[in-house]
TrEMBL record:
GO MF annotations in UniProt: O-methyltransferase activity
SUPFAM superfamilies: S-adenosyl-L-methionine-dependent methyltransferases (SSF53335)
Gene3D superfamilies xrefs: Vaccinia Virus protein VP39 (3.40.50.150)
Organism whose genome encodes this protein: Mycolicibacterium brumae
Name of the featured protein: O-methyltransferase
Biological process (GO), any one: methylation
PROSITE patterns named in the record: SAM_OMT_I (PS51682)
CDD domains reported for this sequence: AdoMet_MTases
Presence of keyword Transferase: yes
Alphabetized UniProt keyword annotations: Methyltransferase, S-adenosyl-L-methionine, Transferase
Amino acid sequence: MDLKRRIPFLRTSFLRMALGAFNITRTGQIGDGREAAAVEYVLANAGPGDVDDVLATIDRFAYQESFLINVGDEKGLLLDAAVRRADPKLVLELGAYCGYSALRIAREAPNARVVSVELSEANAANARQIWAHAGVGDRVSCVVGTVGDGGATLRALADDHGFAEGALDFVFLDHDKAAYLSDLAELTDRGWLHPGSIVVADNVLLPGAPKYRSFMRAEQGKHWDTVEHKTHAEYQTLLPDLVLESRFLG
């Protein structure tokens, strides 16, 4: 494997990403156009209606063209396995980015409806193009907003997407790390989860969600049963990361 593939911070696209960290938290994008370029790359190189090929093409873009901040191929396998364990009918993703993780979820749960909440309208538009090209646009949708926006997004989920008491089987957290805990609290306070619902959280070690991790450790065996998966940050094998898989006990 190429050294720059193993160690991404040797790549100029990784350095540009690091310099654009402020843009990521403010706009959901790195700021150099790589997200739109990834969509163009997929449309030009991946077979329409072929979910596997679309995912592989996004991974290839992230390795060979520009580093992306989606869950990636290694951690994606952990996400896949958790989805299969949940066998969900209704899924909530927080943080669509380019649509990669929602596509993985849709592949592993062919009977599920997947709703992704995304801060950035541009990211939402990109993700919808990816999902349409992969042939899953009829069961994967995006709501632009945030859980903490004063209720507008939560009302949209309830009114337009059927979120109700006990209806939510699976949640994937991959958005603002500081919002993991408060956003999960909103979901549980509304009673949308049920015993057996699974919540997967990415990037718990890097860049880190320490309050979320501490909460899950304190709640172990009480309201949550959590497994910490040791893995690596996306698209490299040097920097460690954690993915937390938590089963709601009620």
